[in-house]
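Hi, here's the filled form for the chain we discussed.

Project: internal
Contact: R.S.
Residues: 341
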Amino acid sequence: MSSPLVHFAIPIRNVEPWLDEALGSLHAQTETRWTATMVDDDSSDNTAAIAADWAARDPRMRLIQRGRLGLAAGPNLAISQRGEAPFIARFDGDDVCRPDRLEKQLAFFSANPDVDILDSRFALNEEAEESAGGMVRYRNWHDSIESHSDFAGEFLVENPICHPASMFRSEVLHRLDQPDAPYRSGDFPEDYDLWLRLYRAGCRFHKLQERLVLWRDRPSRTTRTDPAFRKEAFFGLKWDHLTKLVDIASERIVVWGAKKGGKPWIRALSEAGHPPVVVVDIDPAAIGKTRRGVPVIAPEGLRRSEADRVLIAVGSAGARTLIEAKLSQLGLPHLAVTGLA
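And the returned structure, exactly as it came back:
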């Protein structure tokens, strides 16, 4: 076999109904120079047996069983088996790759040596598509992000990367404090944490417009059941990221959003000893009141605020786009921290 170009890191746990199709989609890749390590996270169904059968049939696949490892240790172990492969691809045992996924991603990397981390658009399973719920709105927002500058502007809104569609150069791991353990264990979403740290380490991101992965949304998916993916855990990573990007002690920061979206930012800034200079809202019932002692003003009062930066923290559909237009008209720097525009 030719030297592998890509190593798939595939943590698996209780994905018996979908694993055969998932691994079959790897086997069918038009680009054949790959290896895959599946790490079974102590499954209680037939997941490990299915993975073992595939590993016996395809020498490019390997199964490791070490008992219960968790969200970070499992993928770290899989990544550690990459050998000399210059690229690492993530994948999950309940999703499906398009046959040309590797071919498309490797071609882009070859033509764009400045890109370190590559995502693609994704398709949703039929049940998620028909529900027209949060995943559909997330998918539409995810579709709008393509260039590195797009990623830079969206990282504080949500996780802009479809984890099972991601691929990155193995060399970027050496930009981290612990290259052999890129995913950190903790009470937070391990993939979002990794992308934020790689962004701050200078990595450049891009997203392909093709839908190269079917991302299966289901009630038992880890992001819906594990407390590490609760809103407070996401906010903790966002706050940490903001404080590493922005000097909150010296900037006059305004929060646009006095309600649900803005409250955690107002609270965090205030508790850090650097409350926003004002809070902006359009609700007449809020204007003239205060949030943690900070006056709430109408948008028209922004000209007098002498703001250095406005954090957009309004989640209503379509509101963010209107707010951004208003702030651009006023010439005020701004950063969205919520709102899937």
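Let me know if anything looks off before we file it.
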